[in-house]
Every structure is written in structure tokens, then in C-alpha cells.
Amino acid sequence: MKVFTIVDHSDEAAGAGLGLRDTKLVIFGSPAGGTPVMQASPLAALDLPLKVLVWDDDGTTTVSYTDPSFLAARHHLPDELASRLTGIGPLTDALTSGQVADGTN
Questions:
Q1: Per-residue buried b or exposed e for 47-68, using 16+ beta carbons within 10 Å of the residue's own CB
Q2: pLDDT at residue 95 tops 90
Q3: Domain at 77, CATH number
Q4: Separation of alpha carbons 25 and 74, rounded Å
Q5: pLDDT exceeds 70 at position 85
């Protein structure tokens, strides 16, 4: 899995003169993993690359994402292709342990 970018929503809000709790969207994936999914189900491109929202919930850092099994069901993916979406677990583990701070591993 590769982290493609981190969107800092709170920083962008501050740039517009608005306040927003610390909120970042981590966008990541693997072309080798995601491309076959999109070949089988072109609308999967709406959900790919994968995304994880990291946000401050009243002083507690919260990590939220769409479960890969939901995405697989949504796009009617067979098990072989659904397994390509499971990389979200290791990335969320890295995020919560602080190993992904600047978009690189």
C-alpha cells in the first residue's frame, strides 16, 4: 500500500478563515491491487483509492473508514477481488501507532 496524499481539512479551513477540529483524510492504495477491482466494477473508482479519516473527537483521536467488506458487497466483488481491499487494516494500525505522520512510511 502506498499513501498517495494527506488532505488536511482543518488546515484548509484555517486558510479560509474558518475553524475546524483537527481533521485529516489519508488517501492510499495500490494500483496493482485496485486496478483489477476497477476493471471488474468500474464504479468502484468512486471508492478507490481507499481513504481513512483521522479526526479529533473532543480530545480523542478517532480513525474512521469504510469497511472493506461493505465496499466488496457494494460493488459485488468476488472474494479474490475483495481481498485486495483489506490493506486498510495495516494502514490504520500504522496511523494509530504514529508511523504515518507525513504521508510516507
A1: bbbbbbebbeeeeeeeeebeeb
A2: no
A3: 3.30.310.70
A4: 22
A5: yes
For 24, the 3-state DSSP assignment is strand
Q: Residue 35 falls within a domain, yes or no? A: yes
pLDDT-derived band at 58, boundaries 50, 70, 90: very high
pLDDT top residue among 87 and 103: 87
State the DSSP code for 18. Answer: -
Question: How many structural domains comprise the chain?
Answer: 1
Whether 78 maps to a domain, the answer reads yes
For residue 46, the 8-state DSSP code is G
Using an 8 Å Cβ cutoff, are 71 and 41 in contact?
no
The answer to whether residue 102 scores a pLDDT higher than 80 is no
| Domain membership flag for residue 102 | no
Is residue 100 within 8 A of residue 94, CB to CB? The reply is yes
Q: What is the pLDDT of residue 94?
A: 73
12 lies in a domain?
Answer: yes
- Count of beta carbons in the 10 Å neighbourhood of residue 15: 9
